[in-house]
Automatic annotation (TrEMBL):
Keyword Nucleotide-binding part of the UniProt annotation: no
Domain Galectin, chain residue ranges per copy: 698-836
Transmembrane segments: none
Region (Disordered): 337-358, 381-412
Coiled coil: none
InterPro entries to which the protein is assigned, alphabetical: Beta-propeller_rpt_TECPR, ConA-like_dom_sf, Galectin_CRD, Peroxin/Ferlin, TECPR1-like_DysF, Tectonin_beta-prop
UniProt GO MF annotations: carbohydrate binding
Name of the protein in question: Tectonin beta-propeller repeat-containing protein
GO cellular component entries: bounding membrane of organelle; cytoplasm
Assigned protein family: Belongs to the TECPR1 family.
Record's keyword terms, sorted: Lectin, Repeat
Length: 1219
C-alpha cells in the first residue's frame, strides 16, 4: 500500500528499512518487531568512607567519578544521561538494583569493598572503605512502524544530499548477534550506488560504471582498509550491483544480467580473492534492477514489462539458478490523497493520515477504511500532510456523516489553508519532529512546542472517504535484503502468471464425471448379493533386512517382518536371524507403546518400546533413510489404529519432546478406554501371576497406589508344609548411598503375616525401618487348602476378608497413598490377583505415546492451548492436527504447515603449550582429544561432523565462536592451567592449555501440526488457563519477561507481546492461578510477583534452597534453581546439581510459600520437571521420563518416582493434565 512518501532508493535487513527520501535525506523504518527495542542505562554511584563524615560522595583525586561506569573510567552522572534522540522514550524513573549476584542488598542497594576496584559484597564489615550502588533506567524506541528521519551531519541538510544508502553486516563472521552497519553516498562523491552484503562485503559503483570493493571489512575494522578496482564485463558499464552472502549480481547499462564467480562472504573480510571474485558470467534475461537476498536468492525487475522476477533454482551447488519466474505482485493499491479534515477542537481525536488513489473514480460512501488509518509518528513531508477543509466546507459543518462526505470536491487541495494551523511550524519539520529524528537529542526545555499537547494535529474520525482502483505504475526498484526465501518451499505468491487458471477444473466433461460419481449410490433397490466380492480383505506381510542392537551393545544382522490383519485389527512383529529360519523373538503389535527415531549420522534407526515384554527399548537400524521413514510411518499407523488414536488429543494429555526434537503425546482418554468400570464403580486390572515364583517373593507395582476405596483380591493354594507367608503393601523404594547405591524400603504401611507355628495372623506397620506394635488375630487358614483374601482400604483402615469372612480392621498408621507395590512371599501358589481402584489404572505398559509430527525443543500445554519452542528459539502453536514430515498420510492435511528449525553444531579445538613450540595440537597421552566435544571425552572434528539425515542442510561454514562463556581473546582462545580447569580470556603465566569453540549452523525443513507465533526469540514459556482465559508468560533470549495478550482457545496464538520490566535477566518462568515465579540468570535468584497488574514493577526475592546432604556430598551452600513449575499450593524446582525441591504453602495470599524441602531419592538427577493439578512429571539426566506417585493432600511431595518412558527425552509437560 502506498504510504504517501516518495523515495529514491531502499535498503533492508529483517525489521529495518533504510531509504533515501525525495529530499535526498536518509529515513529509517523499524517494523515487524513484536517487542520494543529496549536499552538499559546503568550508572554506579560511588562513595568513600571519611573519618569525620562517614560515607561521602567526596572521593579522592585518584578515585573514580561519583557516578561512573562499571569500571569507573567514564563519568555517568544521571542528570546528564539524555535520550540519544527524539525517537526514544524513558520507561519510568531511575531505580536502584537491590541484588548483587543473586544476593539481596539492603533497601538502599549499597555493596561494600575494601577499595576500588576490589570485590564488592552485600554486607558491610570493618574493612569496608568504599561502597557503591547501581542505578538503572530503561529507554524504549518509540518510533516503531513509522518513518523517521536520520539527523544529518550538517546543520543545513542541503549540504549533504544523499543519493544512495545500504545496510548490512547482520551476518558478519564472528560479530556479535544483532550487529548492523550502514554505508551511504552523497552527490559530492564519485560513487553513486553501493551494496553491502550480510557478511559485511561492500561493493560500490562509480559514475563511470566501474565497480570497486572495500578490502578488509571485519568485525574489528568495520570501515575496511582500502578500495580495490574490479574489472567490469567486456564492452559494458555496470548500473546496478547487489551483494548476497556468497554471491554478487549486477546489471549493466544495456540491461544484461551478470553474476560474479568466486565470491566467498565468510572469508571476504580477510581474503582479497574471496571479496573480488575471479570473473563475470552472463545470465540470460534483460533486467533493469537486481537485488540479492540474505541467502543468495535473487530478485529482479524486468526490462520490458517492469514486473518483478525471482531466480529459481539458486543453490550452493548452482549459484546462478535455472530460470526467471514471475512474482505475483498485484498492482491494486490505495494511495494517499488529501481527503482528511482538520478539527483542532476535538480533544480526544488523533492525527491520522487517510489514503486514496489519485485518479478520477466515482467515490462510494459505503467504503469503510478504518483498518487503513495509521497514526502518524513520522515527520509530514510532501503529499502526506492532512488537508484542512476550505472555508466554504467548514461553515455549515454538521455532525452528520453524509454532509461531510458530500462536499469532498470543495476541500482545499492546495495546502495553503493548512499553513496557519501549526503553533510552531518547526515542530513538524523533518529535523525537529518528535519521534521522527534518529540521532538528534530531544530538548523539552527548548522545544516546548514539540512537547505541547495543543501543538499536534487532529483528525476528524467521522470523515472516511477513499477511492480504489488499478494503478498502472510499473516497478522500477526491488529490495530483497529482508526476504529470506526457502527455495524448497516457495511461497504461494510465486507464479508464472498473475492469473493462472486451470481450465480443466471447470470443463464440461469433468463436471459430468463428478455428477455421475455423486449419483452412483442412488439406486437403493439393487440386490448386491448376486455380485461377487471385488476385493477380499486379507492381511499383508512386510519384511526387510536390518540390524538389531543386542545385549552387548553391538548391532547384529536380522530380518524384520510385520504381519498385519486389518479385519481383525491385530498383528505381530517378528525378528529372525539372517538365515530367515530361526526366530529371535516375536511380539504383539498391540503391546508397542512408543516408536521414535534414534538415528545417528549415517545410521537410520528406530527405537520401539514394549514394556510388557522387554525392560529396555528395542533398537533397529535400517539400510537407508527412506526405508526407515517407511517403516516408521507403517508402524505408527498400525499402533494408532489398534489404540484408536487419531486427530487432536484430549486436554489432559502429557507431552514429551525427545533429544532429537520429536514430539510425543500420551492421551489418558484413549488409555482409559481399555479400563472398564464394573458395577461397583471401580476399575479393575488382573495381574498376571501364572508361573511366578512366590516362594522367593513376587512383587508388582500398584500404579494408582492404594487410596481409600481400593481393593486387592488374591486366591491360591497353600503348600502342605508351611510355617508362615506374608503379604506386604510396600512403600516406595529409596536409594541409599553406602559403599554402593542400594534400594531399600523403609516403610510398610500394612504387613499381613499368617503364622501357622503360632496359630495367629500378625498385622503390623513398619515406619522408618522400625516395626510398630503387633496386632494378632485367629488363624483362618489350613495348610494344603485353597484360600481367598480380600484387602479393602477404607478411610479408617485396612479391612481384611479371608474365605468370605471378615477377619480384622487394621487402622492406618501411615497414609495408604504412600503404598507403591504389593509383595507376596511364602510357600504357596497363586491362582489370581486382582487390583481395583476408583480411578482408571494405567501403567507404563498401557501408556501409548503417539508421534505427533514437527520438530521442537520444548512443549508447554495447558489443555486447551499448546505452545512450543524450537531449537532456534522461535515460538510455535499447536493447530490440532496430526502428521506431517515422515508421517505423511496418517492424519488429514488440516492444520499441517511447513516448519523450519535450526541447530548449532559445536566442536572444541584444544592445544597444550610446550617450551619449544608454544601452543600446539600435540598433547600429553592423558590429555583429551585435540578436537573434541565440550567434555573432551569424545573425538569431534569439523571434517567428520555429519548431518543427522537428508532433511537437514548446512546454512553456514565453520566459524570461531567469539561469544563462548567465560570470554575469549582476539583469536577466540580461552586459557586454563590444565584440562578441565576453569577457562578465562586472558593468558596468564601459569596457563598451560587453551581451547576455542567452532560452530556451524544447520537447518531442517519439515512439516507438522504447528504454526509459527511471531519472530520473538524465546527460551522458556509457561501457560495457565482458567475456563476461557489463557495466561501466557515467556522469557526472551535476552532475559526479558513477556506477557502474551489475546490468547484464547479460539485464538491460541494470541495477538501481541507485552513487555514487563524485571530487575535482572531471567532464564525460566512458571505461572499458576495468577501467581508468577521467575528464575534469574544468576541462578540463585528466585523472583516472585503477583500479576494482577502487569504494569507493576514490584518483585520479591525468594531464598534459594539450602540442604545439608546432597548426593553423598555434605554441603550447606545455596544451590541455584534451574527450572521452576507451579501447581496448587506447591512450587517444584530442579536445582543445578540435578536435585528436585519443593516450596510448600504457595497460595495467592502467600505467593512466596513457606519453606524448601528436598524430595529426590538416591543419586537420581533430573533436568526438568512439570507439575499439573494432580500430576507431576520429570525428566532425569539420563533421558528417562518419570511420573510422581502418591500425590495427596497430606503428602504434597508424593511417595516415589515411577519411570514410564525410556526414549532419551529432553522435556515433558503435564501442566494441562488433570488425571
Amino acid at each position: 500500500m502506498y504510504l504517501g512518501l516518495e523515495f529514491k532508493t531502499l535498503s533492508a535487513v529483517p525489521h529495518f528499512l533504510w531509504a533515501v527520501g525525495g529530499d535526498r535525506q536518509i529515513y529509517l523504518h523499524v517494523h515487524g518487531l513484536e517487542i520494543p527495542i529496549r536499552v538499559k542505562e546503568e550508572s554506579y554511584e560511588n562513595e568513600r568512607w571519611l573519618p569525620l563524615e562517614g560515607f561521602s560522595g567526596r572521593l579522592l583525586p585518584t578515585d573514580r567519578y561519583h557516578f561512573s561506569t562499571y569500571d569507573g573510567t567514564k563519568d555517568r552522572s544521571i542528570d546528564h544521561i539524555r535520550l540519544p534522540s527524539m525517537a526514544w522514550q524513558w520507561e519510568g524513573d531511575w531505580q536502584l538494583e537491590l541484588t548483587l549476584d543473586g544476593e539481596p542488598l539492603d533497601h538502599d542497594g549499597w555493596s561494600y569493598a575494601i577499595d576500588f576496584p576490589a570485590q564488592f559484597y552485600p554486607t558491610k564489615n570493618w574493612k569496608s572503605c568504599v561502597r557503591r550502588r547501581k542505578w538503572i533506567r530503561y529507554r524504549k524506541y518509540s518510533a516503531m512502524n513509522s518513518w523517521c528521519a536520520i539527523a544529518p551531519l550538517h546543520k543545513d541538510p542541503t549540504q549533504e544530499p544523499f543519493i544512495d544508502v545500504s545496510i548490512g553486516g547482520n551476518q558478519m563472521p564472528y560479530a556479535p548477534v544483532g550487529s548492523l552497519s550502514v554505508w551511504g553516498s552523497y552527490c559530492t562523491q564519485s560513487c553513486y550506488v553501493q551494496s553491502r552484503s550480510p557478511t559485511g562485503l561492500v561493493w560500490v559503483l562509480l559514475c563511470s560504471g566501474r565497480a570497486m570493493i572495500r578490502k578488509g571489512v571485519t568485525k574489528d575494522c568495520p570501515t575496511g582498509e582500502i578500495w580495490l578496482d574490479v574489472k567490469s564485463p567486456n564492452d559494458t558499464k555496470l548500473s546496478v550491483v547487489s551483494v548476497g552472502y556468497n554471491s554478487v549480481w549486477a546489471v549493466s547499462t544495456d540491461t544484461r544480467v551478470w553474476f560474479r564467480k568466486g565470491i566467498d562472504g565468510t572469508a571476504a573480510g580477510v581474503s582479497e580473492t574471496a571479496a573480488v571474485g575471479n570473473s563475470w558470467l552472463e545470465v540470460t534475461g534483460n533486467m533493469v534492477h537486481v537485488s540479492v537476498g540474505p541467502n543468495d536468492q535473487v530478485f529482479a525487475v524486468g526490462e520490458m514489462d517492469k514486473c518483478i522476477y525471482w531466480r529459481s533454482g539458486v543453490a550452493p551447488n548452482d549459484p546462478t539458478g535455472k530460470r526467471w519466474r514471475l512474482i505475483q505482485a498485484p498492482m491494486h493499491l490505495s494511495r494517499t490523497s488529501s481527503l482528511s479534515s482538520f478539527n483542532s477542537t476535538a480533544p480526544q481525536s488523533k492525527h491520522r493520515s487517510l489514503t486514496t488513489l489519485n485518479e478520477k473514480t466515482e467515490l462510494k460512501s459505503n467504503i469503510n477504511l478504518c483498518n487503513s488509518w495509521e497514526e502518524s509518528h513520522s515527520a509530514p513531508i510532501e503529499h502526506t500532510l492532512p488537508i484542512k477543509a476550505s472555508a466554504e466546507t467548514t461553515t455549515d459543518t454538521k455532525p452528520d456523516n453524509s454532509k461531510n462526505t458530500g462536499n469532498i470536491e470543495n476541500i482545499d487541495l492546495t495546502g495553503k489553508s493548512y499553513e496557519t494551523t501549526l503553533k510552531n511550524p518547526r515542530a513538524w519539520s523533518p529535523v525537529r519532529s518528535v519521534g521522527s529524528v534518529v540521532g538528534m537529542e530531544a530538548h523539552p526545555e527548548s522545544d516546548s512546542s514539540v512537547f505541547d499537547i495543543d501543538s499536534g494535529l487532529y483528525y476528524d474520525d467521522e470523515v472516511s472517504q477513499a477511492a480504489w482502483g488499478t494503478c498502472e505504475t510499473m516497478w522500477s526498484f526491488v529490495e530483497a535484503g529482508a526476504c529470506n526465501i526457502d527455495p524448497l518451499q516457495v511461497p504461494h505468491w510465486f507464479s508464472d502468471t498473475q492469473n493462472a487458471i486451470n481450465t480443466d477444473l471447470i470443463s464440461k466433461w469433468r463436471i459430468e464425471i463428478l455428477d455421475n460419481l455423486k449419483s452412483r449410490n442412488s439406486y437403493p433397490n439393487i440386490d448386491l448379493s448376486v455380485y461377487g466380492v471385488a476385493i477380499e480383505e486379507k492381511g499383508w506381510t512386510r519384511s526387510c533386512e536390518s540390524r538389531l542392537l543386542n545385549v552387548h551393545g553391538t548391532f547384529e544382522d536380522c530380518i524384520l517382518t510385520v504381519h498385519w490383519h486389518s479385519s481383525e485389527n491385530s498383528g505381530t512383529m517378528s525378528v529372525f536371524n539372517p538365515d530367515g529360519a530361526t526366530i529371535k523373538f516375536i511380539l504383539n503389535l498391540s503391546e508397542i507403546t512408543s516408536i521414535i527415531t534414534s538415528s545417528e549420522p549415517g545410521c537410520p534407526r528406530l527405537t520401539i518400546s514394549v514394556p510388557n515384554q522387554f525392560k529396555d527399548p528395542i533398537k533397529i537400524q535400517f539400510t537407508s533413510e527412506m526405508e526407515q521413514e517407511e517403516w516408521l510411518n507403517t508402524l505408527i499407523g498400525i499402533v494408532a489404529q489398534i489404540n484408536k488414536l487419531s486427530g487432536k488429543p484430549s486436554t489432559d494429555s502429557v507431552w514429551v519432546v525427545t533429544n532429537q526434537g520429536e514430539i510425543l503425546n500420551w492421551d489418558p482418554a484413549s488409555s482409559s478406554l481399555n479400563c472398564k468400570m464394573n458395577k461397583e464403580g471401580l476399575y479393575t486390572k488382573e495381574i498376571q501371576v501364572f508361573g511366578k515364583d512366590v516362594i522367593a517373593g513376587f512383587t508388582t507395582i500398584l500404579h494408582n497406589n492404594f487410596p481409600p476405596g481400593s481393593i486387592l483380591k488374591l486366591s491360591g493354594c497353600l503348600h502342605d508344609v508351611i510355617d508362615r507367608f506374608t503379604i506386604n503393601l510396600l512403600g516406595p523404594e529409596i536409594k541409599k548411598q553406602r559403599h554402593k547405591v542400594q534400594s531399600e524400603i523403609d516403610n510398610i504401611p500394612f504387613h499381613f503375616n499368617p503364622r501357622f507355628d503360632q496359630l495367629a495372623v500378625v498385622c503390623n506397620t513398619k515406619i522408618f525401618n522400625s516395626w510398630g506394635v503387633e496386632e494378632r488375630y485367629e488363624l483362618p487358614f489350613i495348610a494344603g487348602q485353597e484360600f481367598s483374601i480380600i484387602i479393602l482400604c477404607k478411610q479408617e483402615g485396612f479391612q481384611v476378608i479371608v474365605n468370605k469372612k471378615l477377619l480384622c480392621l487394621f487402622e492406618h498408621r501411615l497414609s495408604p497413598d504412600s503404598i507403591a507395590s504389593v509383595e507376596v512371599l511364602g510357600p504357596l501358589k497363586l491362582y489370581e490377583m486382582e487390583y481395583s481402584c476408583t480411578a482408571p489404572i494405567v501403567g507404563p505398559e498401557e501408556m501409548v505415546w503417539r508421534l505427533m509430527g514437527g520438530h521442537l525443543r520444548r512443549v508447554e500445554s495447558v489443555g486447551v492451548v499448546v505452545w512450543g519452542i524450537a531449537h532456534d528459539h522461535t515460538a510455535w502453536v499447536y493447530t490440532g492436527g496430526w502428521g506431517g514430515g515422515p508421517l505423511k498420510g496418517l492424519g488429514s492435511n488440516e492444520g499441517i504447515h511447513p516448519m523450519t528449525d535450526t541447530q548449532t553444531y559445536c566442536v572444541y579445538e584444544n592445544q597444550r603449550w610446550n617450551p619449544l613450540m608454544g601452543y600446539t595440537s600435540t598433547g600429553l597421552p592423558t590429555d583429551r582429544h585435540m578436537w573434541s566435544d565440550i567434555t573432551g571425552k569424545h573425538k569431534r572434528t569439523r571434517e567428520h561432523t555429519k548431518l543427522l539425515n537428508r532433511h537437514w542442510h548446512w546454512i553456514s561454514e565453520w566459524i570461531i565462536d567469539y561469544n563462548t562463556p567465560g570470554g575469549v581473546d582476539s583469536d577466540g582462545w580461552q586459557y586454563a592451567t590444565d584440562f578441565p580447569a576453569p577457562y578465562h580470556s586472558k593468558k596468564l603465566f601459569t596457563d598451560c592449555v587453551r581451547r576455542r569453540r567452532w560452530y556451524r549452523r544447520a537447518q531442517l525443513n519439515t512439516e507438522g501440526p504447528w504454526i509459527r507465533a511471531g519472530n520473538t526469540a524465546l527460551v522458556d514459556i509457561s501457560l495457565w488457563a482458567n475456563n476461557e482465559n489463557v495466561t501466557v508468560w515467556a522469557i526472551t533470549l535476552g532475559g526479558d519477561a513477556l506477557y502474551r495478550g489475546g490468547v484464547t482457545p479460539s485464538t491460541p496464538a494470541g495477538t501481541n507481546w507485552q513487555h514487563v520490566n524485571s530487575p535482572q535477566a531471567l532464564t525460566a518462568v512458571s505461572t499458576y492461578n495468577n501467581i508468577l515465579w521467575v528464575v534469574g540468570r544468576k541462578r540463585r535468584a528466585l523472583l516472585q510477583r503477583r500479576h494482577y497488574n502487569r504494569k507493576s514493577n514490584r518483585w520479591r526475592l525468594i531464598e534459594a534452597p539450602k540442604f545439608s546432604f546432597m548426593f553423598g556430598e555434605k554441603t550447606t551452600s545455596t544451590i541455584g534453581v534451574k527450572v521452576i513449575s507451579l501447581t496448587e499450593g506447591i512450587a517444584w524446582a530442579v536445582l543445578y546439581n540435578g536435585a528436585i525441591a519443593i516450596r510448600s504453602a504457595v497460595t495467592r495470599d502467600q505467593p512466596e510459600g513457606q519453606r524448601w524441602e528436598h524430595v529426590t531419592e538416591g543419586d537420581t538427577r533430573f533436568k526438568q520437571v512439570s507439575a499439573g493439578e494432580r500430576e507431576v512429571w520429570a525428566v532425569c539426566a539420563a533421558g528417562a521420563v518419570a511420573r510422581r506417585r502418591g500425590l495427596a493432600t497430606e503428602m504434597p511431595a508424593g511417595a516415589a518416582w515411577q519411570f514410564v518412558l525410556h526414549v532419551g527425552a529432553h522435556h515433558v509437560s503435564a501442566t494441562g493434565s488433570r488425571l
